[in-house]
Amino acid sequence: MSETINTLEMLRKETAKILNVETVDTHVGLGELGIDSLNVVELIVFCEQLYGSIDPEQLNITQFTTLEQLDAQLQQQTA
For the Carrier domain, which residue ranges apply (predicted)? Predict the structure, then answer.
């Protein structure tokens, strides 16, 4: 494959879209970004599309989880 997909960048863009903001920092915890429980559901649905088959129950998502940490968890789950 000559082109790699930057999943973190796609996750960042989708999170900004969900929150209706221009951009979000991938180093900031989800709670600090303003993500609520409904937004997390939207984010998980997007992640299933982006990363393929994932097990949401295996994800460790808290208000302190950053997008970088979430991306790493999902990359590991689908490896």
Answer: 2-78
For the range 43-46, what are the long-range contacts, defined as Cβ-Cβ under 8 Å and sequence gap of 24 or more?
43/14, 43/15, 43/18, 46/11, 46/14, 46/18
4: which residues sit within 8 A by CB, 6+ positions away?
A: none
Neighbours of 6 (CB within 10 A): 11
pTM given for the model: 0.87
Query: Nearest-5° angle of CA 38, CA 41, CA 74?
Result: 145
- List, for residues 6-61, the tens digit of each pLDDT value: 999 999 999 999 999 999 999 999 999 999 989 999 999 999 999 988 888 888 88
Extract the tokens encoding 74: 């999902």
